[in-house]
Amino acid sequence: MEFLTAFTESELVRNGVIACVLASLACGVVGSYVVARRITYIAGGIAHCVFGGLGAACYLQKVHGLQWAEPFRGAVVASLAAAIIIGWVSLKAKQWEDTIIGAMWAIGMAVGVLFIAATPGYSQDLFSYLFGNVAMVSRHDLWLVAGLDLGVLILGLGFYRRFLLVCFDEEFAISRGLNVEAYYLLLLCLVALTVVVLVSVVGIVLVIALLTLPVAIGGVFAKKLWKVMLIGTILSMLLTSSGFAISYELDIPSGATIIVLTGAVYLAVITTKAIVCRGNR
Amino acid sequence: MVDQSVINVDGVTFAYSSEPVLRDVNFKIVDGDFACIVGPNGGGKTTLLKLMLGLLTPDTGTVKLFGQSPKTVRQQVGYTPQRIAANPRFPVDVSDVVLMGRVPQNRCFGPISRTDRLAAEEAMESVGVIDLRKRAFGDLSGGQRQRVIIARALASQPKMLMLDEPTASLDVHVAQEVMELLAELNDHITIVMVSHDVGYVSAFVKTVVCVHCTVAIHPTEEWDDDMQNSLFGGAVRRVKHEHDCTRLKCKIGEHQ
After folding, report:
1. Which chain A residues are within 8 Å of B74, Cβ to Cβ?
2. How near does any CA of chain A get to the CA of B190, in Å?
3. Which of A173, A177, A224 sits opposite B91 (nearest CB)?
4. With an 8 Å Cβ cutoff, is A74 touching chain B?
5. CB contact, 8 Å: A227 with chain B?
6. Secondary element (H or E) of residue B21
7. Which pLDDT tens digit goes with each residue over B125-158?
8. A159/B85 Cβ within 8 A
9. SS3 state at B75
10. Domains (ranges, CATH) in chain B?
11. Minimum Cα–Cα distance from B84: chain A residue
């Protein structure tokens, strides 16, 4: 196996696998809330806004020489801003939620494209931002990803009982005196940071599939949210690493390979389940 | 005589937009009561319940719960919403749902404490769902779900239960069981519930709060057996609430 040899010899391949594992932790925990609360569309909106932040940071760094404007920081700022704006709209102007998310989704992309077009030597970056390139994760990136991951896990698991209640029954949560709006915004911020972590693995366009499909498979087997998180995390680790390995062996794009593999496993699981359920009747 | 009222609604008017849903509403509910809020759809029943719980704030007038502002003391009330918006496949089991009633007094971090577990188990015992505790909430029948939601409300060891249409969408037999459960719980706890079905609940209810923009209070003693029988057996359509916002003509006795 070429990949195993590469794993022992190449630091980049090792970094790639570590990035997969780290991303899977945040993905399993936060993805479970996203699927249970049915806010996939919001997560998609946030993900596409990240592109605007990445583009703006690239532009500021390369054209204006602002060294602090690292793409990663741009992504974090843009994702959090998007989470707060969308969250606010979703809480205060529910009737516009769909429209605003759709608009931000497209505007985020458009802004990113404009900035990147104005930045010389952009095409390489463009492709990896959109579709991910896990073989290009540097040690520096890895530390950043690990830092975000840790934050997301502490908050996401620490407030487990609170988030479970807020996602399940908002009205009851308010009657118990919880600040539901604050928890909802916090949850969206965690989604934002998770998206940033995942972008390094599968890219902006493909983030949604990785955020939702492994936990959706978990949901087929588990009836407690923490079990969904556990299964989702393990599956996500397996799927991202093996997708990466396959892409390496065949020399094809890693992000797309991971997503196709994940989608195939998801389809196989729900089809099997449907057949088994029919058989039991 | 000591004032035993636990809810005081005084001159309350409330509007979502320009047209008031409730206008100049006055009534009180005493300790140990089993009050049922009835009235036509859109008449303001749920709005009234939410005002009493401090989920909404009146435009004019005051609502007092245990003599205080509802927002500060609503944690002493066990509330069951009309429906749970969450998706039916939400991954929670019955004990998860009941433990939600322990928020916010439970600890935020770490495993579930012994006190919380015991309180949840006691609540599940008292409504007869202890055997279901490991079942997925989404797999339960309507009646079982309603019991679990009541157990969740009881898990906080409240002084009062407020239930929003606990028997809606249940078939008659199951609804009767839920009402019997509530009557049993009423031995040691005040109950306020909303129902669109005035005839059905009457057998256990002590006070009827009749809402259609304004409010009329009817002690259930006014209800004679003939009336109940006709309402039980007869169509609900025959119960006419002939009041409007300006003129209140609702007397149970006038229901034909």
Report:
1. 175, 177
2. 17
3. A224
4. no
5. yes
6. strand B20-30
7. 999 999 999 999 999 988 899 999 999 999 999 9
8. no
9. helix
10. 1-42+56-75+187-204+225-236 (3.40.50.300), 78-158 (no CATH)
11. A169
Partner-chain contact A168 B92, CB within 8 Å: yes
- Contact flag B99-A167 (C-beta cutoff 8 Å): no
- Tell the residue number behind the tokens 């950043």, with chain if given: A144
Crossing angle between the packed helical segments A160-168 and A180-202, to the nearest 10 degrees: 100
Chain A residues in contact with B75 by the CB 8 A cut-off are: 176-177
Residue identified by tokens 């009881």 is: B154
The domain segmentation of chain A, as residue ranges, is 2-280
Chain A: give the shortest CA distance to residue B173, in Å: 27
Question: Who contacts A84 (Cβ-Cβ below 8 Å, separation ≥6)?
Answer: A185, A188, A189
The closest of B175, B220, B237 to B36, measured between CA atoms, is B220
- The DSSP annotation for B190-234 comes to EEEEE-S-HHHHTTT-SEEEEEESEEEEEEGGG--HHHHHHHHHS
The CATH number of A2-280 is which of 3.40.50.300, 2.60.220.30, 3.90.1300.10, 1.10.3470.10?
A: 1.10.3470.10
Q: What is the ipTM of this complex?
A: 0.86
- Span A211-261, pLDDT tens digits: 999 999 999 999 899 999 999 999 999 999 999 999 999 999 999 999 999
The residue among A266, A160, A144, A264 whose CA lies nearest residue A216 is: A266
Facing B74 at nearest CB: one of A167, A175, A227: A175
What residue type is B145 in one-letter code? Answer: R
User: What integer is the mean pLDDT of B75-89?
Assistant: 86
The pLDDT confidence band at residue B210, using thresholds 50, 70 and 90, is confident
* Ranges of chain A with pLDDT below 70: 1, 281
